[in-house]
Every structure is written in C-alpha cells, then in structure tokens.
Amino acid sequence: MKKIALMFTTFALMVGCRTSSKTDAELDELFMMMQGSFSSEQQAAKDSAYYYISLHMYPIWEDRGHFLYVEQALHTLPDRPYRQRIFELRRVDQNTLSSHSYVLPNDTLWVGKWKTPEAFDDLRLDDLKEREGCELRLVKQDDGSFKGSTGDKTCESSLLGAAYATSQVVIDDQKLISWDRGFDKEGNQVWGAEKGGYIFDKIVMY
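-> structure tokens emitted (206 positions)
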C-alpha cells in the first residue's frame, strides 16, 4: 500500500508540475501580447463610423505580478485620454485567464506615464479601486489568440445613461479587437460601436 501511495504521489506531483508550467507560460504569453502601442488608424480610414484611437499598454510593477498601465485617447488629443486603467492578469482555472481593471486616483497625474512605467513604483494596489464585475474572462483559441468577455450585466456603468457595460475582446500578437458597449436597464445600447469592435493594430512592440 505504501508503494502504491508513493507512486500516486509521484504521479500527482509530475502532473502538477506540467500544469503549473503550462499555466505560467500561457499567462506570460497573454501578458506579452497585450504590451505595446496600438492604433485603429487603418480601420478609421476605411470606415467613418470608427474613430482614430491610440491605445498604449505597458507593464508596471514587474516584481508584483502581471500588471499593465493602459491609456486610450483620440489620436488628435493624445494628452487628454478618455480612459486610464491598470489591468491585472490572473489565472482563474486550468483553461481560463482573467483581466481585472482598476481605476487610478487623480488620473490626470498619470497621463503619458506609459513612457516611464517606473513612475508607478511608489503607487500601491491598495491605492486603486477595482471595477468589480468588469473583469474579462479569456480562453486561448486553437489559432493561438485569446478570446473573452465580461459577464452578463455584471459591469455597472452610468456613462451616458447606461446601467451596465459589456466588453468583448480578441487578442493575438499583431492586434487587439475590443468591442465596448453600454446598455440601459431595458437592454438598449446607449454608447459604443454598433457594427463591431475596434481593431487596434500593434504599431510598437514592447
């Protein structure tokens, strides 16, 4: 019996090691895909329903986990971003990763700091406010991309009369497709692109 138990324990440890290795590699892969500067210029040039938007996502707190500072602005107004967040990537289970979104205090102080990520070194996670219910759940696809979305009506939003917001994303090593929308209590869309997500081509690799 002791021999059988020892064999089972050894097998379990081997399986656990393989799972852990795969898990770390997959999380690191998504983290790398999300890093860099992105642009919707090509999409905007082809379809006037879409704005020319610049998106910057750069790693911070590299000794604390998988964190990114995210800044999004109209290309013509780079110093007036309409979205600033910190994203944290986590492992949910064997097949699922998650991206959690945090709001920065005094966000105007951080405009353009994607150029100098070390500026965040003195900021603590406790200083941030998590947007609970707004996390993305992402799963790796057969083509190597990651695809995911927020929960159903879990992400509260009051922007432009919305009651909740949804996000759907597809990420690979060349682009990020993001479809953010707001809905009122009756389920009517009140903001966001109507035909599909914004296509952000990666223009600067980190």
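The mean pLDDT is 90.
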